[in-house]
């Protein structure tokens, strides 16, 4: 999400590793990924529609305000000084459903909490998010199916929008980053709750934590909505414990031995499931109540603004 108007990207045997260092239990179904490609196509279609509505040549006048790539006609981009990501104007994004606190709270346009996920500030923003979605999402959908991955994507995007609205109330925000971070969070909780089926556990955990840390750190740069990232990540992290639980290693084999049948799920998986459900329901409920009461999250957390932009000698926030 962003900008402050710009952004907020078959069966396997035990011992056979894939790119994410874990092994699937012998009874796992390998799904065909179609939802993630469909989401990518939908985002591309929405961006084209936004650029059609934007119609830069018709709205920009003056020698010093030339549209970028004018040969594209009404699909040409706003001047780079206005939008360096090669995209539409802020007013067009707002018109098409960008997240804006005042419209959500005071004009009862709660639908913007979801519509902003399908908008992007520019072609660079769009391509970055869609490449990340393909890399992360297809693998998850192949292993867990479109229903669970689709729920994580949408609910995480909503969680990111809610947190963004609570803390960034003077700007608009667009992008699928909250939903993408939700998938990253779900990958982490899936690793933790399904710990027994992983080979190279430490390598998997360190790799995933490194990727998450780098992406969250980049979110502290100017013009990036890191609150959407954090909100999406926390939502997806909780959802992973609920939706991505696998039978513990050895359960399938133990079913043939009736005298020593192993529990399908371990006690710690049940415990994580319950805690995650409680945190998810309570967290989203409290955040929604605060949002529609018009609360400003910065008043309750004086230092939280540093999470979205950390000022240095090189830039201001």
From TrEMBL:
InterPro entries: Peptidase_S54_rhomboid-like, Peptidase_S54_rhomboid_dom, Rhomboid-like_sf. PANTHER family: RHOMBOID-LIKE PROTEIN 2, RHOMBOID-RELATED. It is an enzyme of class 3 (hydrolase). GO terms for cellular component: Golgi apparatus; membrane. GO terms for biological process: proteolysis. It comes from Arabidopsis arenosa (Sand rock-cress). Its main location: membrane. Belongs to the peptidase S54 family. The keyword Hydrolase applies. Its EC number is 3.4.21.105. The chain crosses the membrane at residues 34-53, 117-138, 150-168, 174-195, 202-221, 227-246, 267-292. GO terms for molecular function: serine-type endopeptidase activity. It catalyses: Cleaves type-1 transmembrane domains using a catalytic dyad composed of serine and histidine that are contributed by different transmembrane domains. It holds the Pfam family Rhomboid. Serine protease involved in intramembrane proteolysis. The lineage of its organism: Eukaryota, Viridiplantae, Streptophyta, Embryophyta, Tracheophyta. Keywords: Hydrolase, Membrane, Protease, Serine protease, Transmembrane, Transmembrane helix. The keyword Transmembrane helix applies. It is a multi-pass membrane protein. Residues 108-244 form the Peptidase S54 rhomboid domain. It is found in: Membrane. This is RHOMBOID-like protein. It comes from the Eukaryota.
């Amino acid at each position: 999400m962003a900008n402050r108007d710009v952004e907020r990207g078959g069966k396997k045997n035990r011992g056979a590793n894939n790119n994410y260092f874990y092994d699937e239990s012998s009874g796992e179904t390998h799904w065909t990924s179609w939802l993630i490609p469909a989401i990518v196509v939908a985002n591309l279609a929405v961006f084209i529609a936004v650029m059609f509505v934007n119609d830069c040549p018709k709205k920009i006048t003056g020698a010093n305000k030339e549209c970028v790539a004018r040969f594209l006609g009404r699909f040409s981009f706003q001047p780079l000084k206005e939008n360096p990501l090669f995209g539409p104007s802020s007013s067009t994004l707002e018109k098409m459903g960008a997240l804006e606190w005042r419209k959500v709270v005071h004009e009862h346009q709660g639908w913007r909490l979801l519509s902003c996920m399908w908008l992007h500030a520019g072609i660079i923003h769009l391509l970055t998010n869609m490449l990340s979605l393909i890399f992360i999402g297809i693998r998850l959908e192949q292993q867990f199916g479109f229903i669970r991955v689709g729920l994580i994507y949408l609910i995480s995007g909503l969680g990111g929008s809610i947190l963004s609205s609570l803390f960034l109330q003077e700007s608009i925000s667009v992008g699928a980053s909250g939903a993408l971070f939700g998938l990253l969070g779900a990958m982490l909780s899936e690793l933790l709750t399904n710990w027994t089926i992983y080979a190279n556990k430490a390598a998997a955990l360190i790799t995933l934590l490194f990727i998450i840390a780098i992406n969250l750190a980049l979110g502290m740069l100017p013009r990036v909505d890191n609150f959407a990232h954090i909100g999406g990540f926390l939502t997806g992290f909780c959802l992973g414990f609920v939706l991505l639980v696998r039978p513990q290693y050895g359960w399938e084999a133990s079913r043939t031995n009736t005298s020593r049948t192993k529990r399908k799920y371990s006690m710690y998986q049940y415990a994580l499931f319950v805690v995650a459900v409680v945190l998810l329901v309570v967290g989203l409920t409290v955040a929604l109540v605060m949002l529609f009461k018009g609360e400003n999250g910065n008043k309750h957390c004086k230092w939280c603004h540093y999470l979205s932009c950390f000022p240095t000698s090189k830039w201001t926030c």
